Amino acid sequence: MTPGPKSRALAATLRQFESPNVTFLADDGSFPIFWEEAHGCTVTDADGQAYLDLTAAFGVASVGHTNPAVAAAIAAQAQKLIHGMGDVHPSRVKVALAQKLSALTPGDLGGALLGTSGGDAVEAALKTARVFTGKPGVVAFTGGYHGLNLGALAVTWRADFREPFAGQIAPFAVHKPYGEFLTELPDGVGAVLVEAIQGRGGIVVPPPGWLESLKALCEKSGAVLILDEIFTGWGRTGDWFACEHEGVVPDILCVGKALGGGLPISACLARPDVMAAWGVSTGEALHTSTFLGNPLCCAAALASLGELERLAAPGLARERGAFFIEQLERLQSQFPTKIRGVRGRGLMLGIQLTSAFAGELMVQLLHRGVIVLPAGDGDILEFTPPLVISEEEITHAVTQLKLVLS
Ligand SMILES: Cc1ncc(COP(=O)(O)O)c(C=O)c1O
After folding, report:
1. pLDDT at 355
2. Other CB atoms within 10 Å distance of the CB of residue 404
3. Does Transferase show up as a keyword for this record (predicted)?
4. To test ligand 1's pocket by mutation, which of 60, 146, 226, 241 has the most ligand atoms within 8 angstroms of CB?
5. Ligand 1 center–CA 146 separation, angstroms
6. In terms of Cα–Cα distance, which of 267, 194, 269, 188 is closest to 225?
7. Closest ligand 1 atom to the C-alpha of 122?
8. pLDDT one-digit tens code per residue, 214-258
9. Is the pLDDT assigned to residue 1 strictly greater than 90?
10. Taking CA 360 as the corner, what is the angle to CA 358 and CA 365, rounded to the nearest 5 degrees?
11. Mean pLDDT of the chain
12. What are the distances in angstroms from CA 12 to CA 8, 21, 26, 45, 46?
C-alpha cells in the first residue's frame, strides 16, 4: 500500500508552493500520503486507501478523528459566531471554556490564558512565571520539547532545532538531565519547566518521586513549577493529568493538543495568586493575540472535553494501554535483537529499538496501512493512538509491526 497517484501528484504540487523545509517529500514518492478524511482511528488518503492511525495526529485526536460531537459543536458554532474579540468583547463560549478548564484541572489551577498552539501556552507560562517571581531564569531538561516559537525554543532541548537560530534565542534557560534529582536551583531561576513524561524526547517516564522533588525544590527556592502537559494531558497517560500519578499539583500548567478535539487551542493555567501577578487589565492586555479565545475553537474544546468525560478517558487509556503494552512486551521477547524495551503509561507508549531505525519502520508500516511516528533520537517508535482505539485495532497494528520486524 504505497502512496497512490493522487498523493504523488499532490506532493509534486506542494513541492512547488510550500516552503521547502516543512513537509518531507521523498523523491521516489514513497512518503507521505495526503489525508482526505479521518474518523475514529481510521485515516483515508486522497487515493481512497485506509490507514490505522497510531499517532492521533501528534496526540491530538484523543476522542477520535472527526468526533461526531466535536464536529456537531463546530458546525453549530459556525452558524452563530466564528470569530470574536477575545480580550475586548469576548464570546460566551470563551467564558464557558475558562470555567470548564478550572473545573477539570488539578488543585485550584485556573485563570486561563488561552492560546492557539502548545508553544503559545509555554510562552504564556514562561511570562507568567517571570511576572510572579521577578526572576527570568528557567531550568528545563535534556530531551525536553516545548515548541518552536523563539521563547519556547529557549527551553526545548534539541540542538538541530536551535542552532539555525543562534543569536535569536534568549539565554535565560539552563538544561539539567531529565530524571536526575536536583539539590538546588541556580541563581536567578524563577521557574522549573518540565514534561511529566517526555513525548517527542522518546516517551521517557521519570523515576518515581522526581516530580515531587522538583515541586519541593521550587517551594524551597521561591520558584514555580511549570508542568507541560500538552501531550500527556486529558487522560492520555491513564490519569486526567500525568502529574496526578505522582500526586503533584504544579503552580502553572500548560495544556493543548487534545483540548480542541482537532481545532487549534491551548491554555496556560496557574494557581490564583500566581496568575494574579499579571494585575488587572486597564485596557491593554500584556499578553494576547488576535485569535485568543476564538469562539469556534472554544466550542470545539468544550465538546472535546465533554467527550473525554463521557468516555472516561483516563480509564480507557489505562485499559487499552495495558492491552497494548502486553502485546508489545510479547513482541519484544520475540525480537530481542531489535527491541530493547517497552515503555510509557496509558496510551502514551513506545518501543526502544536497539538502533535508530524507527524512521525506516515508519515508512514500512505506512506501506502496510499503519501510521506511526519516530521519537527520541530515531531509536523510539511511538504509539499515541486515539483513546478510542479498539483491541482489534491494537492487535492488527502489532501484527503489522511483527511483519515488518521479521
Ligand atoms: C510536550 C509538548 N509541549 C509543547 C509542544 C508544542 O506544541 P505545538 O506544536 O502545538 O506548538 C509539544 C508538541 O509536540 C509537546 O509535545
Report:
1. 97
2. 15
3. yes
4. 146
5. 5
6. 194
7. 4
8. 999 999 999 999 999 999 999 999 999 999 999 999 999 999 999
9. no
10. 90
11. 97
12. 6, 14, 10, 16, 14
Question: How far, in Å, CA of 59 to CA of 383, rounded?
Answer: 9
CA of 158 to the centre of ligand 1 (A): 13
Measure 336 CA to ligand 1 centroid, in angstroms: 32
Do residues 380 and 340 lie in contact, with contact meaning Cβ atoms separated by under 8 Å?
no
Q: Shortest CA distance to 314 belongs to which of 243, 262, 264? A: 243
| Maximum alpha-carbon separation in the chain | 65
Q: How far apart are CA 242 and CA 254, in angstroms?
A: 12
Q: Which one of 205, 227, 257, 289 would you pick to mutate in the ligand 1 pocket, going by the greatest count of ligand atoms within 8 A of its CB? A: 257
Given the CA of residue 256, which atom of ligand 1 is nearest to it? 10
Distances (CA, A) of 43 to 38, 51, 53, 174: 4, 5, 7, 40
Q: How close is the Cα of 165 to the center of ligand 1, in Å?
A: 19
pLDDT reported for residue 165:
97
Residue 147 Cα: closest atom of ligand 1: 6
Substitution candidate for ligand 1 out of 203, 230, 252, 259 with most atoms within 8 A of CB: 230
pLDDT digits (tens, 9 = 90+) for 16-68: 999 999 999 999 999 999 999 999 999 999 999 999 999 999 999 999 999 99
CA-proximal residue: ligand 1, atom 3 (nearest): 146
- What single-letter DSSP state applies at residue 165? G
Using the mean position of ligand 1's atoms as its centre, give its distance from the Cα of residue 152 in Å. 9
Find the residues whose C-beta lies inside 6 A of ligand 1: 58, 117-119, 122, 145-147, 195, 199-200, 228, 230-231, 256
CA distances from 50 to 27, 150, 373, 383 (A): 23, 37, 17, 18
Of 177, 174, 238, nearest in space to 204 by CA: 177
- With b for 16 or more beta-carbon neighbours within 10 A and e for fewer, the 317-332 pattern comes to bbbbbebbbebbeebb
Mean pLDDT of 377-384: 97
CA of 118 to the centre of ligand 1 (A): 5
Instruction: In whole angstroms, give the CA distance from residue 170 to residue 172.
Output: 6
Contact predicate 231/403, CB 8 Å: no
